[in-house]
């Protein structure tokens, strides 16, 4: 676990007016007060200075007057005021010099101050590292969990000997648990790993996965593009989409036979029919007409396919089939995706790479329909196919061509839920992108992450209000990262500030490549601070950048664009302040390009491309948010899906694609001047 800050900051919580009055005017008597330990009694209460947000607000509202001057200490005895009487005044000597007035907080500065609502209580979890158990020693004894909140006992847990057993008071929910085990047999560590089966050679597990190329061969694949050839003459040639896919597939086959000779590869094409070539060594199987509308029939036929040979034996046959592909007909993308996933589900860790240039217009997953019922059916279809792939450890990637309309906002669901890639490419970029997908191997499946925090805290932008969040991750690759953001409950903020530390625990349950069930538990403690300015130097802007990218993209996909914009602006202001303070020009340029792309997602959202429906939607923006006639453009959907699964190494990528994406947005605004933009 990697936190965005060295401390948990509770100074940026928005307080209600009633709670502000209690803090600044009516301090509770049950808490120890600073004046009890001083030689004089003061009328003011400086606990409000612990809240950075309220300090800034008070300084701006009372800009005409400085803060009250604290009185001098005297040797007078402490005389606490009686209930109902006025507080005694302290007399000062005439020759005493008052202390200097504290400097005011200026509303203008050379670099923008972080927003009061910008939270740094963020944690990033690098799942790819945590599920890799090659260098982790497994514990012999199983973890012990709390009977109330299911937190595991760890090195920070406090135990004491009872009459008949060991008593462990859970540090998360304060539940007293009686332990019958001996103290030596209890795994009390901050990092616990447990595997169900006896340890085996983790590195030499046989690769049983498949690679399935699902290729569009419809008539639109004959469209040509102008491409520059880098040779001695620097010629410019025209290449069709089909030719670019064929070249990319042949290069991918060469890569696989050289680096993964035991891996099995299958080819499936789709136009008006779906054709299964398999490894190229058997007779192709074709699905057409009514068969493309029957999901049960398609799944049952997949079970009758012959076993595939490894690429070392099927290379020449597959190469021949790829070269013989011809473009014609419509686009039966939905049935082809269903057959591909059904075949890949038979082998854990398989990949499905879909290459297309148009809307699915035949069979299941029909995307050209404009009526609400058909659109909902298509949405549920792709969601169901994606969830089935997650259960069997299959990763789906969707690649499309520039300048096409594939309804990527719906088709991208397949890649989004399985951890695959969604990208829009020009013909030259396909070979490198496919090779990157082939190198991105699944190292764990059926991954479930459980994150437990203190009862005084809650998870922001999550459906649960409990202090425990369970997230179904599914497939995990070497670069998979997830982030969480948490805050302090408003009713408990005053009590929370008196604590020194708070515990955090992550529980990962997953299945390894060799199909062993495993669990890993990581526990940490973090100190609490009420002054965010004192820990600014320890803020990790990389963690904040990944978090705001994932969160804003998810909120934008859910239609919560105002919340996405707010998060982007607050975090950007905070990060810029930190970068300006450190005076690191490289980091400043890096994050300026990154957040420019995130802001673009919030600038343009659900757009109604129907001119006849525009006037009707102007009167009711809330209803228009749910209208199925509105959808992301493919360019916008591609960027949103990529940011939704943002990873640390993506911060170092060139911003050329992001600039090209912004140009596409401007062109879309000019093309649809009457389109409704829901903010």
Commentary on this structure:
- This protein has three domains: 1-74 and 122-139 and 189-205 and 443-539, Immunoglobulin-like; 210-440, Rossmann fold, CATH 3.40.50; 540-679, no CATH class.
- 32% of the residues lie in helices and 20% in strands.
- The protein has 19 helices and 24 strands.
- The longest helix has 22 residues, at 561-582.
What brief labels describe this structure?
about 675 residues, alpha+beta, Immunoglobulin-like, Rossmann fold, 3 domains, 7-stranded mixed β-sheet, 6-stranded mixed β-sheet, 24 strands, about 20% strand, disordered C terminus
Outline of the structure:
With 679 residues, the protein is α+β, with helices and mostly antiparallel strands.
């Amino acid at each position: 676990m990697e936190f965005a800050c060295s401390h948990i900051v509770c100074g940026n919580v928005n307080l209600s007016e009633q709670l502000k009055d209690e803090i600044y005017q009516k301090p509770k008597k049950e808490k120890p007060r600073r004046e009890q330990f001083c030689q004089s009694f003061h009328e003011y209460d400086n606990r409000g200075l612990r809240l950075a947000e309220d300090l800034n607000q008070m300084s701006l509202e009372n800009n005409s007057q400085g803060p009250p001057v604290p009185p001098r200490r005297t040797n007078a005895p402490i005389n606490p005021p009686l209930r109902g009487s006025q507080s005694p005044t302290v007399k000062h000597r005439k020759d005493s010099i008052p202390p200097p007035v504290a400097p005011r907080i200026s509303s203008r500065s050379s670099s923008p101050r972080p927003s009061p609502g910008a939270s740094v209580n963020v944690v990033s979890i690098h799942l790819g590292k945590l599920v890799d158990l090659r260098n982790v020693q497994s514990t012999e004894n199983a973890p012990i969990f709390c009977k109330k909140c299911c937190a595991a006992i760890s090195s920070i847990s406090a135990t004491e000997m009872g009459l008949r057993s060991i008593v462990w008071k859970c540090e998360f929910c304060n539940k007293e648990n009686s332990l019958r085990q001996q103290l030596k047999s209890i795994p009390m560590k901050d990092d616990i790993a447990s595997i169900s089966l006896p340890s085996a050679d983790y590195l030499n597990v046989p690769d049983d996965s498949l690679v399935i190329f699902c290729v569009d061969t419809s008539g639109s694949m004959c469209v040509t593009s102008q491409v520059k050839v880098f040779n001695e003459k620097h010629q410019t040639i025209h290449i069709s989409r089909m030719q670019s896919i064929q070249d990319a597939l042949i290069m991918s086959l060469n890569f696989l036979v050289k680096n993964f000779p035991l891996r099995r590869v299958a080819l499936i094409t789709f136009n008006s029919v779906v054709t299964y070539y398999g490894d190229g060594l058997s007779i192709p199987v074709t699905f057409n007409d009514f068969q493309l509308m029957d999901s049960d029939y398609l799944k049952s036929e997949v079970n009758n396919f012959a076993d595939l040979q490894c690429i070392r034996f099927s290379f020449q046959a597959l190469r021949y089939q790829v070269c013989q592909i011809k473009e014609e007909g419509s686009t039966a993308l939905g049935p082809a995706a269903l057959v591909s996933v059904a075949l890949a589900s038979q082998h854990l860790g398989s990949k499905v790479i879909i290459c297309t240039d148009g809307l699915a217009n035949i069979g299941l997953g029909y995307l050209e329909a404009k009526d609400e019922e058909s659109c909902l059916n298509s949405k549920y279809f792709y969601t169901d196919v994606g969830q089935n792939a997650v259960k069997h450890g299959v990763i789906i990637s969707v690649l499309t061509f520039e300048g096409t309309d594939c309804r990527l906002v719906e088709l991208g669901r397949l890649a989004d839920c399985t951890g695959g890639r969604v990208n829009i490419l020009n013909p030259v970029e396909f070979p490198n992108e496919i090779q990157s997908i082939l190198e991105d191997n699944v190292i764990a499946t059926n991954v479930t992450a459980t994150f437990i925090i203190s009862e005084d805290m809650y998870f922001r932008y999550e459906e649960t209000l409990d202090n425990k969040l369970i997230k179904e991750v599914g497939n995990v690759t070497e670069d998979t990262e997830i982030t969480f953001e948490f805050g302090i409950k408003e009713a408990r903020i005053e009590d929370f500030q008196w604590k020194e530390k708070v515990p955090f625990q992550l529980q990962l349950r997953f299945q390894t490549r060799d199909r062993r069930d495993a669990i890993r538990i990581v526990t940490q403690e973090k100190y609490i601070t009420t002054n965010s300015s004192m820990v600014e130097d320890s803020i990790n802007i990389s963690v904040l950048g990944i978090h705001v990218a994932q969160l804003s993209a998810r909120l934008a996909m859910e239609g919560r664009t105002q919340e996405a914009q707010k998060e982007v602006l607050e975090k950007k202001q905070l990060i810029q302040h930190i970068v300006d303070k450190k005076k690191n020009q490289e980091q400043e340029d890096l994050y300026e390009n990154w957040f420019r792309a995130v802001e673009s997602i919030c600038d343009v959202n659900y757009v109604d491309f129907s001119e006849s429906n525009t006037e009707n939607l102007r009167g009711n923006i809330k209803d228009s948010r749910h209208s199925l006639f509105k959808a992301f453009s493919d360019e916008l959907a591609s960027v949103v899906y990529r940011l939704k699964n943002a990873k640390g190494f993506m911060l170092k990528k060139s911003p050329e694609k992001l600039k090209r994406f912004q140009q596409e947005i401007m062109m879309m605004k000019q093309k649809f001047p009457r389109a409704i933009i829901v903010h």
